[in-house]
């Protein structure tokens, strides 16, 4: 390889760095791209795309049907076409110093003109369709000379028809790719085309996963790469006493300086051996914008899902059950015939092709000459109801895996009212809303790229074309240039602007929306045709609409037309009154601002005083609380002492009761003993003592 230098670097180093970045990106994205490629194949018209290839070959090799009744295409088109009906619109708003609303409208009109000149709707629709079908699509911004005889350049929005040929920085985590630091687009061109575009360059393939297969198959194509990389340089900026910030150069009067890192985008076209082209892309963003489908993160790795990814198994089931049902039905007219040996051999041709024979003949005897019953066709095989039900259930499985049901795709369901149908349809739209929302985010970043690039591309005094809100085209001078009747100058190189994307109904112009509104009003109240019929036709787009508008003015009551004309002479007076009112309003606002400041000062003083008073109140409150607590403690101590005294009294009373009970028990025992003794003496006829004495004498 020749040591050709580009921007101070050797071509070999540039190509090697680009190949290393591409290799890392391919390793990170390989699983997503493999599944995306499988999704695209599944939706293709290949005969076994929606079959397992071995099952398909097994059935077809034995003459059994292997049908493909695609159910997924209608859902894909439903979601993609819903997105088309809600065309995003890029709005530009002022975002900083030196920016204003009128210049923002110039930016917005210029972007609308870029969209028209680029046929950007095709780019948006293709990216959205790819995101729905395989989980990822791309948009790109490009720039080129306005024509062959001009040094002025214009920006363009290009569509990317092969999303699997784009590889964005694998370290990017944003949903619109705005944090990407590099990107690569792999393109295949014929060798003849390569030699025509790049004479003197050797047709050597840039490394890619498919190039080896191409060379082995003998294809007369090579791969080249477009490589974008974000390069940074350190610069010093300064600020003057007025607060203006600019890139500092030695000797400038400044009040402060600091160093920053400024990003620039380098654009290469590379073969495997040469740097074919080298340019700078305006702005600070990689001009390759991804449009993701359903996004899922796990362990720091991004997974992308298409609309059909989780429905493919159900589609294969449906194809299998339908094929099996068809196979059984095909056997119905070919049910076998049971006949005795020797009955139909002489008429074999007729029985083998009964459709060709008007009369089927047979012998009444078998091969041994014995009488035999007439040949009988056996009952044909029946299709089990389980197979039919399974086929129906798989359709429900497909809808469930997508979250889209009958009303969402325009089929009749159990809803009876229009409101219920619309609500069910909205639920289906919500289930797939993320596809359209991701497109809006990507178009927002695309608008950001355009706003960032416009000051560098449209950086000279020139006349540009812009498109207004009602599709009206007009020319305007910028950067010091002016056209006839232009009231002020517009410098696209000054100020900062932000982007906001709005989605809405598919009205291509505000005039169409107005025409629809007037039509609805006149339909409900036809008598208003005599009042605003001219406005209705004025906003129509068909041939002769404007002539019809002028004709309607002749039949409309003149007072409705003269009212507008009567206001024209008073325009200047009204404008003067408006200006006086604005000046008065500004004076009132200043006076209110002063009063507001005085009020805030008084409130601050009151707040300080309130805080001081609050501190005294808090101290007094704390003392009261302490006194309350001390009183409660004293009350609790007195209650405890009283309770203890009551318990002592109860204890003494209990002891007295026990002693009294013991005395009473002793008295009772003594009385009982004496009673027993007296009873014994009475029984013996003597007293206990005399009895004792007699005993002793003995």
Give the overall silhouette.
extended
Annotation, overall tally of beta strands? 19
Calculate the terminal CA-CA distance, rounded to whole Å.
161 Å
Low-confidence stretches: 209-217, 563-571, 686-698
Structural class: alpha+beta
- What profile does the largest beta sheet have? 6 strands, antiparallel
Radius of gyration over all CA atoms, rounded = 48 Å
Number of helices: 18
Number of domains: 4
How much of the sequence is in beta strands?
15-25%
Query: Mean pLDDT, nearest integer?
Result: 79
Helix content range of the residues, please?
40-55%
Give a quick rundown of the structure.
With 698 residues, the chain is of the alpha+beta class. The chain contains 18 helices and 19 strands. It folds into 4 domains: 15-46 and 54-84 and 92-310, no CATH class; 312-405 and 420-431, no CATH class; 510-556, no CATH class; 571-680.
Give a topology summary.
Blueprint lengths: L4 E2 L2 E2 H32 L10 H9 L11 H13 L2 E7 L6 H18 L1 H15 L1 E10 L7 E7 L6 E3 L13 E9 H7 L13 H6 L4 E19 L5 E3 L8 E15 L4 E7 L6 E5 L1 E5 L2 E5 L6 H19 L6 E2 L9 H5 L23 E2 L7 H18 L15 H14 L1 H25 L4 E6 L5 E6 L18 E7 L6 H15 L4 H10 L6 H11 L2 H10 L3 H114 L3 H10 L1
Antiparallel strand pairs: 1-2, 3-19, 4-5, 4-12, 6-7, 7-8, 8-9, 8-10, 10-11, 13-14, 15-16, 17-18
């Amino acid at each position: 390889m020749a040591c050709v230098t580009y921007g101070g670097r050797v071509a070999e180093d540039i190509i090697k760095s680009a190949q290393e970045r591409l290799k890392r990106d391919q390793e990170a994205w390989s699983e997503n791209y493999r599944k995306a490629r499988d999704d695209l194949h599944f939706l293709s018209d290949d005969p076994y795309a929606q079959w397992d290839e071995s099952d398909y070959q097994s059935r077809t090799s034995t003459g059994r049907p292997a049908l493909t009744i695609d159910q997924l295409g209608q859902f894909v088109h439903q979601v993609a076409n819903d997105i088309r009906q809600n065309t995003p619109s890029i709005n530009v708003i002022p975002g900083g110093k030196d920016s204003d609303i009128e210049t923002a409208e110039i930016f917005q009109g210029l972007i609308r003109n870029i969209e028209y000149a680029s046929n950007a709707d095709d780019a948006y629709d293709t990216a959205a369709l790819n995101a729905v079908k395989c989980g990822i699509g791309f948009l790109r911004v490009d720039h080129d000379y306005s024509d062959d005889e001009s040094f002025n350049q214009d920006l363009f929005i290009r569509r990317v028809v092969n999303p699997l040929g784009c590889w964005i920085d694998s370290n990017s985590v944003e949903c619109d790719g705005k944090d990407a630091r590099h990107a690569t687009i792999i393109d295949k061109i014929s060798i003849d085309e390569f030699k025509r575009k790049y004479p003197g360059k050797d047709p050597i393939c840039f490394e890619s996963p498919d190039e080896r297969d191409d060379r082995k198959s003998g294809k007369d194509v090579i791969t080249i790469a477009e490589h974008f990389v974000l390069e940074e340089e350190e610069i010093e900026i300064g600020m003057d006493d007025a607060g203006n910030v600019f890139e500092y150069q030695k000797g400038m009067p400044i009040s402060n300086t600091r160093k920053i890192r400024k990003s620039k985008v380098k654009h290469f076209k590379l073969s495997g051996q040469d740097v074919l082209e080298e340019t700078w892309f305006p702005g600070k963003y990689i001009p390759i914008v991804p449009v993701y489908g359903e996004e899922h993160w796990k362990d720091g790795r991004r997974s992308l899902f298409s609309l059909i990814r989780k429905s493919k198994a159900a589609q294969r089931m449906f194809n299998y059950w339908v094929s099996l049902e068809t196979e059984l039905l095909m056997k119905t007219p070919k049910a076998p015939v049971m006949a005795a040996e020797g009955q139909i051999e002489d008429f074999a041709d007729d029985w083998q092709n009964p459709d060709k024979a008007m009369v089927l003949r047979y012998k009444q005897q078998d091969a041994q000459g014995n009488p035999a019953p007439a040949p009988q066709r056996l009952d044909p095989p029946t299709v089990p109801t389980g197979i039919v039900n399974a086929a129906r259930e798989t359709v429900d499985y497909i809808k469930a895996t997508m979250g889209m049901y009958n009303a969402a795709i325009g089929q009749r369901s159990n809803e009876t009212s229009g409101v219920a149908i619309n609500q069910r349809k909205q639920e289906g739209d919500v289930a797939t809303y993320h596809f359209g929302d991701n497109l809006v985010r990507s178009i927002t970043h695309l608008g950001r790229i355009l706003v960032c690039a416009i000051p560098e591309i449209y950086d000279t005094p020139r006349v540009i074309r812009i498109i207004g809100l009602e599709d009206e085209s007009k020319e305007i001078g910028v950067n010091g240039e002016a056209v006839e009747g232009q009231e002020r100058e517009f410098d696209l190189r000054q100020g900062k602007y932000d982007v906001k994307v709005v989605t809405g109904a598919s009205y291509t112009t505000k005039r169409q929306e107005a025409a629809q509104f007037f039509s609805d009003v006149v339909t409900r109240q036809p008598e208003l045709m005599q009042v605003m019929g001219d406005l209705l036709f004025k906003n129509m787009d068909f041939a002769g609409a404007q002539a019809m508008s002028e004709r309607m003015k002749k039949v409309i009551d003149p007072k409705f037309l003269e009212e507008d004309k009567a206001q024209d002479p008073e325009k200047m007076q009204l404008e003067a009154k408006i200006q006086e009112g604005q000046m008065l309003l500004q004076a009132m606002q200043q006076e209110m601002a002063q009063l507001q400041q005085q009020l805030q000062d008084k409130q601050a003083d009151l707040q300080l005083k309130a805080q001081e008073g609050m501190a005294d109140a808090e101290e007094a409150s704390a003392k009261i609380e302490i006194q309350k607590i001390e009183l409660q403690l004293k009350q609790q101590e007195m209650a405890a002492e009283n309770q203890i005294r009551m318990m002592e009294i109860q204890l003494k009373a209990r002891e007295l009761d026990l002693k009294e009970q013991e005395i009473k028990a002793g008295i009772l025992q003594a009385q009982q003993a004496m009673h027993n003794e007296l009873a014994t003496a009475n029984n013996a006829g003597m007293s206990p003592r005399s009895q004792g004495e007699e005993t002793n004498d003995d």
